[in-house]
Write a structure and sequence with these properties.
About 70% of the residues lie in helices and about 0% in strands. By secondary structure, the chain is an all-alpha fold.
Length: about 110
């Protein structure tokens, strides 16, 4: 019993140290930051594809088609990333979110 309590205290100490060093962050904060970065990357990427089309004289229909392909890929990848960052219950189902809490820590 004492060994279990010692292990629990040690885990709690490691967790506090990790939080203090910034190695353990609220998942909601990470998710928000990641979404912000991905949104900017998406915008910049679409603008890059458009500029490449114009600079290289690529017909607008082809550029539009490639933008659609890129956006489909982007949606799929972002959905996968968000799925991995969604807290889960032991059953594998997404955990209910309480807006008042800081969220799961990563």
């Amino acid at each position: 019993m004492k060994k279990s309590l010692d292990l629990a205290r040690l885990r709690q100490l490691h967790r506090k140290e990790a939080e203090a060093c910034g190695l353990l962050v609220p998942a909601n904060d990470l998710r928000d930051e990641l979404m912000s970065v991905l949104a900017r990357l998406g915008t910049e990427s679409r603008n890059f594809i458009k500029r490449m089309g114009i600079q290289n004289g690529i017909p607008q229909e082809i550029v539009t088609h490639k933008l659609t392909e890129y956006e489909d890929l982007q949606k799929s990848l972002i959905g996968e990333i968000l799925g991995r960052l969604t807290p889960r219950e032991p059953t594998g189902k997404p955990a209910p979110q309480d807006e008042g809490e800081a969220g799961e820590l990563l």
